[in-house]
Amino acid sequence: MSLLELDSVTLKFGGLTAVNDLSMSVEEGQVFALVGPNGAGKSTVFNLISRFYTPVTGSIRFDGKDVLKMAPHEVPNLGIARTFQNIELFHQATVLQNLLVGRHRHRKTNMIAQMLHLPSVRAEEREHRHAVEEVIDFLDLQPYRNSRIAGLPYGVRKVVELGRALASKPRLLLLDEPASGLSVEETQNMRWWIDDIRRHMGITVLMVEHDMGLVGKVCDRVLALADGAKLAEGTPAEVQSHPKVIEAYLGTNAVSKGGKVA
Ligand SMILES: Nc1ncnc2c1ncn2[C@@H]1O[C@H](COP(=O)(O)OP(=O)(O)OP(=O)(O)O)[C@@H](O)[C@H]1O
Ligand SMILES: [Mg+2]
Description:
This is ABC transporter ATP-binding protein. The chain has 262 residues and is of the alpha/beta class.
């Protein structure tokens, strides 16, 4: 059984078919990339998995469970965490506070216990702090731990968003363009982190990315979308040299010249 399975999923926005009869399977332990030109429907696929949208037809299963039966707030409890194309953080809060938000799904004590500051509450707080400190160390966020998000450079905010998702200790991490807007050095770091997230933390990664260099280095499997439909699927090399993919990115001329998507 695959960890994540989409079967014949279609979503329309009025007259526009944003996702068109899409089937895909992500296996546990994989780093899987969704690629495609702007407007192909990549972020919409993430929004479907997160239950922000409900498809017209099709099914989405995670670890055998029917995701479409869940409300959006229940999805993180399944063990699915995500980052957003346009970074969604609490800008007036610190890095540490934002990372602690990622622990929300693990909060077990109720409000009364918290008000009375019972030992169970203190034990739980220690556990959350510990999980967050691990993330801070892993992503080298120590210098920024008490900084407010609003004053931080873009590249650091992206790392904090990754950290918030990791703090929830997910089984599946959805990364929407993790390298967009990053410098060459920051992209290199992102590459090592994604490698480690899979190898050492055992987390499955589904990412949307335009940087085919990064995709080629970290991903096992790639699915190319255009106009919401699957164009090709395979290894990064297979997908990059697929005629339909070259045509979607570069036009028909590039195919006849034997092009490859860079
Ligand atoms: N909430 C919405 N209402 C109407 N149309 C939408 C909505 N969200 C996305 N779309 C449209 O659906 C299509 C797919 O959008 P989506 O954001 O999924 O593309 P994408 O592949 O993530 O593109 P990009 O690489 O630019 O981020 C686009 O034509 C977009 O304009
Ligand atoms: Mg997008």
